[in-house]
Design a protein that fits this description.
The complex is a heterodimer.
Chain A: H1 17-22, H2 30-33, H3 37-58, H4 68-81, H5 102-118, H6 120-139, H7 145-149, E1 151-153, H8 165-170, H9 177-186, E2 194-198, E3 204-211, E4 214-221, E5 226-229, E6 240-245, E7 252-254, H10 258-297, E8 299-300, E9 303-304, H11 309-331, H12 341-366, H13 377-389, H14 397-405
Parallel strand pairs in A: 1-3
Antiparallel strand pairs in A: 2-6, 3-4, 4-7, 5-6, 8-9
Helix pairs in contact in A: 3-5, 5-6, 5-10, 6-10, 10-11, 10-12, 10-13, 11-12, 12-13, 12-14
Chain B: H1 20-23, H2 28-34, H3 41-48, H4 51-68, H5 72-77, H6 88-99, H7 123-137, H8 139-157, H9 161-176, E1 183-186, H10 199-204, E2 210-214, E3 217-228, E4 235-242, E5 251-256, E6 262-267, E7 278-289, E8 293-294, H11 300-336, E9 338-339, E10 342-343, H12 348-373, H13 380-405, H14 416-426, H15 433-448
Parallel strand pairs in B: 1-4, 2-4
Antiparallel strand pairs in B: 2-3, 3-7, 4-5, 5-8, 6-7, 9-10
Helix pairs in contact in B: 4-7, 6-9, 7-8, 7-11, 7-12, 8-11, 11-12, 11-13, 11-14, 12-13, 13-14, 13-15
Classes of the chains: A alpha+beta, B alpha+beta.
Chain lengths: 409, 457
C-alpha cells in the first residue's frame, strides 16, 4: 500500500520495530549517536512524503476535516512506519522517542512540522500521543501498543501556568505556602475541569498532579474519569474538545523523588512547547505557500497582487515569522537536558502571537476567499489560535518567567 | 457595592486613602467639581447621547438580548443550508425585526420607522448604535439584519424621491408588516474584490457583469460573489458596466431577484457570521426595465463609493460590538473563574489586561461616534480610517480575551471563539483594511499635494 515506506533508509536507524522484530532484526542504537544531518534529512523526507501523500490527501478539503476513523487509520499507519511510537518497551526512532541527541531533536521538530503542513490538528494529536509515551518511559510505565495509541498527555493544570509558582518550583526556588496552594489548585483534577482537545476515541491519559509538594503523575483510564464533550471548538477540526474531571483518586499514581520529579516535568514541558512551535511552523509553511501561490495569480489593478507593496508587506510579515521560528527551532535542536525552560517559554511567548499574526496575513492576502472554509487560510488562523491558547496559553508566561528567573522570589 | 469589599491590591471604598468616596465630603464647590457617580460604562455613554438616539440604543439592546443573543449558537452551529433556504429561527427573527422597525430605520414615518426624534442626527450615527448592539449579540444575525440597509443605500443616496416612494417605501412597509423584504448590495465579482472598491484598480479592471441595452431596458449578464444576504434578498442593487464600456460606465440596477435568469448559484461556507449567507449570483439575460436604473446611467461608481463611505462607519461599529462582547465575556470569566483560591480579577496582571481591553473598546467606540455624529455627508477619509482602525483593534481585543481564557478560550461554549470568527470578517469586507488605508490616502491627496499649506492631522 505504501510505496513510501522508508525501507531504503539506514535500517539501524529507522526500522519499524514490529517489522524489525518479525525479521529478527537487532536494533543497535549506537549509530544514532553518530547520525548526521544527511540521515536526518532522509528520515524527514520520508515523513514529509507520508504527510503530503497520506495526510494531505485526506485533508485536501479544509471544510471536510479528517474524521475520527480516518485519524485512527492514519495513526496506525504512522505507528507502522515508525513515525509514532509503539509499545513503551519497543525501540525506534519515532517522534519524541529520543530527545537527548541534537539530530533526534531536529528530527522530532522537523517531523511534526511536516505533519502540521498537512494537518495541524493531526500533528497536535500525534505530538501529545508521542509525548505521553515519552512521559511513560520516564516514569517507568510499560504499555502495549494498543494502549499507547489511545493515550493522551495533559501537560498542564486547569488554567494557565500556575502563575509564578510553577516557574519557581521548576527552578527549585523555595516555595511559599501560597505557591504550594497555587500548584495544588492548579493540578487539582477533581474540582476544576481540565479542557483537552484530542481524538474522539481516546482511551486513557497521563497527567501531572500535586502530591507531597511535588509534581507526581497519574495514569487514568477514560472510564474512570468524568468526561463531557463540548460543542465544536475553535480549531483542530479533526479533534474534539472535552472537559475532564477526576472524581476520585482513581488510576495509577507515580511519585518521583524531588529531582526526578522536577527534571521529568521540565523535559516534558520543554518538549511540549517545542512541539507546539513546530506544529505552528508547519502550519505557517502551509500558509506561506498558499499566500505566495495566490498572490502570484490573483490580479488587482491590472497586475498580480504580489506586485503591490501592500501585499508584499504582508508576505514579508509571513516570511519574518517563518524566519524567526526557523531560528528558534534550529537553536533548540539540542539535547533536551541542555535546553533552558525559561528560554523556551519566552520563545513561545513571542513566537505564538507572531505565528497567529502571520496566519492572519495569509487570510488577508487572500481577501474574501481567505475567509471561506473551503479555501484553507481561515482554518490555519483557527489552528494557530488553538496552539496559542492550549498548554496554559501565552498570557501567563510572563508570570511564569518571573518565577523562573527569581523575580518573584 | 459593599464599602468594605475590594479587589486585591486596591483599598476598600471606606478607607481614608480611597479617594472616590471622600469626594462627597468636600465642600460644595469641591464636591461639584470632583464627585462623580459610579455608573456602568454602557450607561455612562448612554447618558451622553441625545435622548432620541439613547432610546434607540436601549431598544436595540433589548431586541438583541431578547431575540438575537438566544439564537446565536443555534444558527452558528447549524448545518449549512442550501442556497435560498432560510433557517426557521432566522426567519422568525427577521419577521420580528421587521415589525419592530429594524429593517426600515433609514427613513422616518410614514415611509419608514426612524423615530422622529432621531431625524436631527446623522442616520449613520443611529445605524452605528444599532449595529454595535446587534454585533455584541451575534455577528451573523447582525449582518443578516444590516446588509439589507447596505443594499438600500443606493436607493437613498440616489436622491430620487421617486426611488424612495416607488421602491424603498414598499420594502419598508413589507418589513414592518412582518413580511421581510431584504435588499442585497451586489458589487463584488469573482475577478474583482478590491477593484470594485478602489478607483485605481477599477480603471484597469474589465467589468464582469455587463448590461446590454434592449427594448425597454437592459439585460444583465455575469456573476457577482460574496453578496451578503444575497441568498434571501427579494431585490438587489446590482452594479454593472454598460456593454463595451469600462468601469466608469458602472450603473446601479434595482433588480427583482425573482426575475428570470437571476440565480443564487451557491452560498459560501464562511468562517463566521454564519447566520448570514454570502451568495454567488448568476445573472443570465436578466431583464431590468429602464425605470429601475438607480441614479442614472454611468453614475454607479459614484453611488457605490458613496455607499461605502456611508457603510464603513457602521462596519467600524461592528468592531466595537465584537470588542465589547469579548471584553464583557472576559470580565465575567475573570470575576468567576478561580485560580489558587481566588477569582482571576484579583490578580494584578489580569486587571492590567482587562483595563487595556476596556480602553481599546471605548477608544474605538469614541472614534466611531465622533465620525458617525458628523456623518451627514461621510467623508471617504474619515469613514475608511474609522473602519480599518476600529476593526483591526477590535480583533486585537478579541485575541486578548481569548488569551485571558487561555485553555478555555477555544471552547465554543465560552463564546469568544465565535466572536473571533465574526470579527475576522470585518477586516475583509467593505474593502480589505489595506484597501481602506489606501482609500483614506486617496481622499487626502488634495491636502498632501498642496505644498502651499502644511497638512493638519
Amino acid at each position: 500500500m505504501f510505496s513510501c515506506l522508508p525501507w531504503s533508509l539506514p535500517r539501524l536507524i529507522f526500522v519499524p520495530p514490529v517489522q524489525a522484530l518479525a525479521e529478527g532484526f537487532q536494533v543497535d542504537w549506537a549509530p544514532l549517536m553518530y547520525m548526521d544531518t544527511e540521515d536526518s534529512k532522509q528520515l524527514l523526507n520520508e515523513v514529509r512524503r507520508f504527510a503530503r501523500e497520506r495526510i494531505a490527501g485526506m485533508a485536501a478539503r479544509p471544510e471536510s476535516p479528517i474524521n475520527a476513523d480516518q485519524l485512527t487509520l492514519l495513526t496506525q499507519e504512522a505507528c507502522e512506519l515508525g513515525i509514532l511510537p509503539l509499545a513503551t518497551a519497543d525501540d525506534g526512532f519515532s517522534i519524541w522517542e529520543h530527545s537527548n541527541v541534537a539530530q533526534a531533536m531536529s528530527f522530532n521538530t522537523g517531523a511534526l512540522r511536516h505533519i502540521a503542513y498537512a494537518s495541524p490538528g493531526v500533528a497536535f494529536a500525534w505530538h501529545r500521543l508521542a509525548l505521553a509515551r515519552f512521559v511513560c518511559v520516564q516514569l517507568g510505565l510499560a504499555f502495549e501498543t494498543n494502549v499507547q495509541q489511545g493515550m493522551l498527555l495533559v501537560p498542564t493544570g486547569h488554567y494557565g501556568l500556575a502563575r509564578n509558582s510553577l516557574g519557581k518550583w521548576l527552578k527549585a526556588h523555595a516555595l511559599s505556602a501560597e505557591d504550594k496552594d497555587m500548584l495544588s489548585d492548579w493540578l487539582d483534577r477533581s474540582v476544576n475541569a481540565t479542557t483537552i482537545y484530542a481524538p474522539k476515541d481516546w482511551k486513557s491519559l497521563v497527567w501531572p498532579v500535586w502530591s507531597d509538594d511535588q509534581i507526581a503523575w497519574r495514569y487514568v483510564e477514560r472510564k474512570e474519569l468524568d468526561v463531557s464533550s463540548g460543542n465544536a471548538q475553535h480549531g483542530f477540526d479533526e479533534l474534539a474538545g472535552f472537559a475532564v474531571r477526576q472524581p476520585s483518586t482513581a488510576g495509577k499514581a507515580i511519585k518521583l523523588d524531588p529531582d526526578a520529579s522536577r527534571s521529568t516535568y521540565a523535559s516534558m514541558f520543554k518538549l511540549d512547547v517545542l512541539g507546539l512551535l513546530s506544529i505552528g511552523a508547519g502550519a505557517l509553511d502551509r500558509g506561506q505557500a498558499l499566500a505566495r501561490d495566490y498572490a502570484g495569480i490573483r490580479k488587482q489593478g491590472g497586475k498580480v497582487i504580489a506586485e503591490h507593496p501592500a501585499v508584499q508587506h504582508m508576505l514579508s510579515d509571513i516570511e519574518i515569522a517563518r524566519h524567526n521560528v526557523d531560528m528558534a527551532l534550529a537553536a533548540f535542536s539540542q539535547p533536551v537536558d541542555e535546553l533552558d525552560v525559561g528560554t523556551i517559554a519566552a520563545a513561545r511567548a513571542s513566537l505564538s502571537p507572531a505565528l497567529c499574526q502571520a496566519a492572519n496575513q495569509v487570510v488577508q492576502v487572500h481577501g474574501g476567499i481567505g475567509y471561506m472554509r473551503d479555501a484553507g487560510p481561515e482554518k490555519l488562523v483557527r489552528d494557530q489560535n488553538m496552539l496559542k491558547l492550549i498548554a496554559g496559553g501565552t498570557r501567563e508566561i510572563h508570570a511564569f518567567l518571573a518565577g523562573w528567573t527569581g523575580a518573584s522570589v | 457595592m459593599n464599602m468594605h469589599s475590594h479587589l486585591e491590591g486596591h483599598l476598600p471604598a471606606d478607607h481614608r486613602l480611597s479617594p472616590h468616596w471622600q469626594f462627597s465630603n468636600l465642600p460644595l464647590i469641591g464636591r461639584v467639581l470632583t464627585d462623580y457617580p459610579v455608573n456602568d460604562l454602557w450607561e455612562t455613554d448612554f447618558a451622553r447621547l441625545p435622548r432620541a438616539l439613547a432610546k434607540q440604543r436601549r431598544r436595540a439592546r433589548t431586541f438583541a438580548e431578547q431575540h438575537i443573543m438566544p439564537a446565536a449558537d443555534e444558527l452558528d452551529l447549524s448545518a449549512h443550508l442550501p442556497a435560498g433556504e432560510c433557517h426557521p429561527t432566522a426567519h422568525r427573527i427577521l419577521c420580528e425585526a421587521g415589525k419592530q422597525g429594524w429593517l426600515s430605520y433609514f427613513m422616518p414615518a410614514p415611509l419608514g420607522s426612524m423615530p422622529w426624534g432621531t431625524v436631527p442626527h446623522a442616520p449613520i450615527w443611529q445605524c452605528s448604535l444599532i449595529v454595535e448592539e446587534f454585533s455584541r449579540a451575534c455577528g451573523g444575525l447582525m449582518l443578516l439584519l444590516s446588509a439589507h440597509h447596505l443594499g438600500a443605500m443606493p436607493l437613498l443616496l440616489s436622491g430620487s424621491v421617486n426611488n424612495l416612494l416607488r421602491y424603498l417605501a414598499p420594502v419598508y412597509r413589507s418589513c414592518e408588516r412582518g413580511e421581510p423584504h431584504l435588499i442585497a448590495f451586489a458589487i463584488t465579482e469573482p475577478g474583482a474584490g478590491s477593484d470594485v472598491e478602489e478607483g485605481h484598480g477599477a480603471e484597469i479592471y474589465r467589468p464582469g457583469v455587463v448590461a446590454t441595452p434592449t427594448e425597454g431596458g437592459y439585460v444583465l449578464n455575469g456573476r457577482k460573489c460574496y453578496i451578503s444576504g444575497g441568498d434571501l434578498a427579494k431585490t438587489a442593487t446590482v452594479f454593472a458596466a454598460l456593454q463595451g464600456e469600462g468601469m466608469d460606465s458602472w450603473t446601479c440596477f434595482y433588480v427583482d431577484c425573482s426575475a428570470p435568469g437571476y440565480k443564487v448559484a451557491r452560498t459560501e461556507l464562511k468562517m463566521g457570521m454564519r447566520a448570514s449567507g454570502a451568495a454567488e449570483i448568476e445573472l443570465t439575460n436578466v431583464f431590468v426595465p429602464t425605470d429601475r436604473i438607480i441614479g442614472g446611467l454611468r453614475n454607479g461608481w459614484v453611488l457605490n463609493r458613496a455607499t461605502l463611505n456611508a457603510s464603513r462607519i457602521p462596519v467600524a461599529s461592528m468592531g466595537v460590538g465584537f470588542a465589547r462582547a469579548a471584553t464583557e465575556t472576559a470580565v465575567e470569566f475573570a470575576r468567576h473563574y478561580k485560580v489558587g483560591g481566588k477569582a482571576l480579577i484579583h490578580y494584578q496582571d489580569v486587571q492590567l489586561h482587562l483595563a487595556t481591553m476596556v480602553a481599546e473598546t471605548r477608544a474605538i467606540r469614541s472614534m466611531v461616534w465622533q465620525e458617525a455624529k458628523a456623518a451627514w455627508r461621510p467623508r471617504q477619509l474619515n469613514s475608511s480610517l474609522c473602519k480599518f482602525h476600529a476593526t483591526d483593534r477590535a480583533q486585537r481585543v478579541c485575541e486578548m480575551a481569548m488569551d485571558l481564557l487561555a485553555d478555555h478560550g477555544g471552547k465554543h461554549e465560552n463564546r469568544l471563539e465565535k466572536i473571533f470568527r465574526d470579527v475576522r470578517l470585518t477586516r475583509i469586507f467593505e474593502g480589505t483594511n489595506q484597501i481602506n488605508r489606501l482609500s483614506m490616502i486617496e481622499d487626502w491627496q488634495a491636502q498632501l499635494l498642496d505644498f502651499n499649506h502644511s497638512v493638519g492631522v
